[in-house]
UniProtKB/TrEMBL annotation:
Protein name: NCS1 family nucleobase:cation symporter-1
Membrane topology: Multi-pass membrane protein
Residue span of region Disordered: 1-21
Keywords: Membrane, Transmembrane, Transmembrane helix
Species this chain originates from: Paraburkholderia polaris
Gene3D superfamilies: Hydantoin permease
Keyword Glycosyltransferase: no
Amino acid sequence: MAQFSAAPGSPAIPTYADGGAPSDSPIPAGYSERLYNEDLAPLRHQTWGAYNIFAFWMSDVHSVGGYVFAGSLFALGLTSWQVLIALLVGIAIVNVLCNLIAKPSQANGVPYPVACRATFGVLGANIPAVIRGLIAVAWYGIQTYLASSALVIVVLKFVPQLLPYADVHHHGFMGLSTLGWAGFMLLWVLQALVFWHGMETIKKFIDYAGPAVYVVMFILAGYMVYRAGWRNIGINLGGVKYHGMEVVPVMITATSLVVSYFSGPMLNFGDFSRYGKSFRSVQRGNFWGLPVNFLAFSLVTVITTAATLPVFGQLITDPVETVGRIDYPTAVILGALTFTIATIGINIVANFVSPAFDFSNVAPRLISWRAGGMLAAVASIFITPWNLFNNPAVIHYTLDVLGSFIGPLYGVLIVDYFLVKRQRVVLDDLYSVSPAGSYWYTNGVNYRAVAALLPAALIAVICVMVPALDGMANFSWFIGAGLGAVFYRVLAR
């Protein structure tokens, strides 16, 4: 049987009496098949260095969605430098929060849902796992649709004869045109192929995808500055609406939006930090991948967005549209394909790997990591993400309600690991259904954690959904995380 007790600074590799896993059974002695498969098992060899974590964040940041999000902050009425400050403060907060949530998974070599067992119980961990998995399914479909839309734009630019097949009213099914279906399924298959080859292939993909996007983005920014002329790039893109100290609460709102934007990947960051060879490597990777990388990304985004005003006569926050207006066909193809690859990268790391572990955790005997990921991918088709994305009300109620659980989940997990358990986890008991196990609690569920989660999530949902509380909606993550942390701290005593 494996012997392991993870204390601060302890190694993340379980050891066995014979120096290896038992040879007569695929499941270590004392582990339950209800909780164990090879994909959820603690890692023996953690090989990711700082660059791999840095590349993970590059793939997570460099996307069409990230570009549009950064550009959309101008709509708040902030100047370019104010948007930049809000982005940097927000990402610095994300960096700290990611280091905290990374610790238990890196120290024990386990993915996010297994780490949740210590807090919610070995069976209760399915609650946070399913919540994160469902959020990932919805975003996976939407991101795939966005990437395929960029591909369709390029195809139509060079093969206009296909335009009739892009008309959903004449050639369409379930709200998507024939050409749209072709693009969506092509991207769906390409992502599935990368995922199916395992984490090593995913690591290699993100190691190259992030830097490749940077090259194209710098070229695009340089081209736009050349076309516009440096002196013609203004800083008051959103129209100055605030003066003096009036701008402070608006910038705080923008900062909160940055944290909320990264809240999903941040919650299940343990799915990747578990591969880190040391916690120090994870910290270095987070530093270069978040504050430093995001600073460069934000500068390029702000400059490119600002340049669209003098070049095209209007503010364009969508990089695909910006590329589509360039007169050089080769540049259009290169740019669109690069942004498509970037979206594939973020989709795999943020919305494919997560549900793969989450759904596998529900029934390890029946659902492997690959099966869990493919289950999420298939589900993303049936939710028809194009209809979700094109109906702001539906996506608002669906994703915001689910998203309101992310903050409380984070608060409960952090308080339990750092304040209640003092960073000490008995690894073997994460895989045990024995009533004597540390994390069996009552019927396999820590009802105190659930009791802290539900009211905190409910309050966060109310902040998002009730019009009278509209001003608090942008802070729902902080409200939920704070309440979840306080409620659990009180109950855990």
